[in-house]
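Structure in, sequence out. Go:
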């Protein structure tokens, strides 16, 4: 077996994607042997209290569920059972969490979403449910009992603040210890209950709904549509039905509307900008006292550069996308920029090939906090 990943229990990414991805669950004991939490419980609670971090608190009371959205200034006492707190996008705020998420880069960045961390008190969980996305559930601290099911009945309890399956019928059950990982395909029913306090890390994916993409695409195209001229009817004759839409008007407008065409480039630019757009909660920190362009080039050539954790950089053909912006580049610049996007860093030898234009863009990105000096 070539190119196997310990993270996938010794499977190669090719085998994993062929046999499990979107198809069936995979339990990997000691995917990360000896794994210990990247953030302490308190560090996680501190994140949940921040305005710029998405968090949720979920409490169960018999058949009733309650959900509060963060920021979570105050949490239930640790000794209280059956509550859980979820922090989304931890990779945006912590280098080690970012590095863990990026271990899953055998899947394209365009599909990778974030690292969510949950803390649960004894008995805590989010209830039996299914997700619309694939997920890797890595046990980080304590133990969690997962019950899972391939059931087709995905009907939900009405009136709950979160998705709770009406008729969950567990088919398999595993207790995960720190370092163990469970992969679940989309729409696979599951219920994870903390056995004592525990922390679970979820590597999540994104799969935009076509409706959402279509609406955003039309908005994107609205900025670039060009239909000059205005309707005119020099041949107009008197009407006996003044309220009726005139047939020539309808025909002429249809002809103009049909002139609107989408090219492959339109779709590429739209998708790259859309998928590299930071989430609404993401704020970049512009650098405090930025170096001048000349000093920046000197420092970069000595130390190298790296993308900020929050930066999303993608490319396709001659198009490069960064944090929702796009531009087209020539072949030489493309080589440097695609290397930066793939590696998320450039060392000094790679920077020797960067043109003045590229260095100028790097300086701007550095000032905005999109890119950092090593
Ligand atoms: C959790 O970590 O409690 C929830 C993860 C999930 O079920 O998707
Ligand atoms: Co889930």
């Amino acid at each position: 077996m070539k190119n196997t990943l310990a993270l996938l229990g010794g499977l190669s990414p090719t085998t994993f994607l062929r046999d499990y991805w979107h198809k069936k669950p995979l339990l990997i004991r000691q995917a990360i042997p000896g794994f210990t939490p990247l953030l302490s419980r308190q560090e996680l609670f501190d994140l949940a209290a921040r305005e710029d971090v998405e968090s949720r608190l979920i409490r169960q009371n018999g058949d009733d569920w309650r959900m509060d959205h963060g920021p979570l200034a105050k949490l239930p006492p640790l000794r209280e059972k059956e509550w859980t707190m979820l922090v989304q996008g931890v990779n945006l705020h912590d280098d080690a969490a970012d590095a863990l998420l990026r271990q899953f880069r055998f899947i394209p960045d365009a599909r990778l979403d974030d690292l969510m961390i949950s803390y649960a008190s004894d008995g805590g969980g989010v209830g039996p449910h299914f997700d619309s996305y694939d997920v890797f559930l890595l046990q980080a601290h304590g133990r969690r009992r997962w019950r899972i099911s391939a059931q087709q009945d995905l009907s939900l309890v009405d009136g709950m603040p979160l998705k709770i399956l009406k008729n969950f019928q567990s088919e398999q059950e595993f207790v995960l210890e720190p370092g163990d990982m469970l992969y679940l395909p989309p729409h696979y029913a599951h219920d994870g209950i903390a056995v004592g306090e525990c922390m679970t890390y979820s590597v999540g994916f994104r799969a935009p709904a076509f409706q959402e993409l279509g609406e955003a695409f039309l908005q994107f195209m609205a900025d670039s549509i060009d239909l000059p001229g205005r309707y005119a009817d020099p041949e107009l004759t008197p009407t006996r039905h003044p309220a009726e839409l005139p047939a020539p008007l309808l025909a002429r407008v249809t002809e103009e509307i049909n002139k609107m065409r989408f090219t492959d480039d339109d779709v590429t630019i739209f998708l790259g900008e859309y998928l590299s757009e930071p989430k609404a909660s993401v704020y970049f920190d512009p650098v405090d006292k930025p170096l001048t362009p000349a000093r920046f080039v000197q420092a970069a050539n000595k130390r190298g550069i790296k993308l900020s954790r929050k930066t999303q950089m993608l490319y396709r053909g001659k198009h490069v996308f960064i944090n929702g912006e796009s531009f087209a580049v020539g072949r030489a610049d493309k080589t440097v920029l695609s290397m930066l996007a793939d590696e998320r860093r450039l060392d000094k030898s790679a920077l020797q090939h960067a043109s003045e234009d590229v260095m100028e863009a790097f300086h701007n990105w550095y000032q905005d906090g999109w890119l950092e000096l090593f």
